[in-house]
Amino acid sequence: MNDTLIVVSAASGALGRLVIGDLVSRVPAGQIVAAVRDPGRTADLAGRGVQVRRGDYDDAGSLREAFKGAARLLLISSPELDPGRRIAQHTAAIEAAGEAGVSSVVYTSVLGADVGDTGVAEAHHATERAIFASGLPYTVVRNPFYSEAFINAGLREAVASGELTSGTGGRGLNTALRADLAEAAAVVLTQDGHLGHAYDLTGPLWTYPQLVDVLSEVAGRPVSYRGDAAVPGALGWLHGQARAGMLETQTDDLALLLGRSPTTLRQAVAAALSAQIR
Question: pLDDT tens digits, residue range 89-102?
Answer without folding.
Answer: 999 999 999 999 99
